[in-house]
Amino acid sequence: NFTLSYLKDMFGQLKNLSEVVTLYLSTDMPLRIEVTPNDLNLEIDLYLAPMIGV
């Protein structure tokens, strides 16, 4: 699980890259964050998974 403040800080940084950020949520997969920077012809996929077993 991720805290809302952690996600807010992370997305606060991404808003400088792109106007559109897409989230993909699933119960069996890490959170996938898709970012398409405004002035570049590329797509960035970030994966965020919780630490298990600590």
From TrEMBL:
Gene3D superfamilies: 3.70.10.10
Organism listed in the record: marine sediment metagenome
InterPro entries per record: DNA_clamp_sf
The protein, known as: Proliferating cell nuclear antigen PCNA C-terminal domain-containing protein
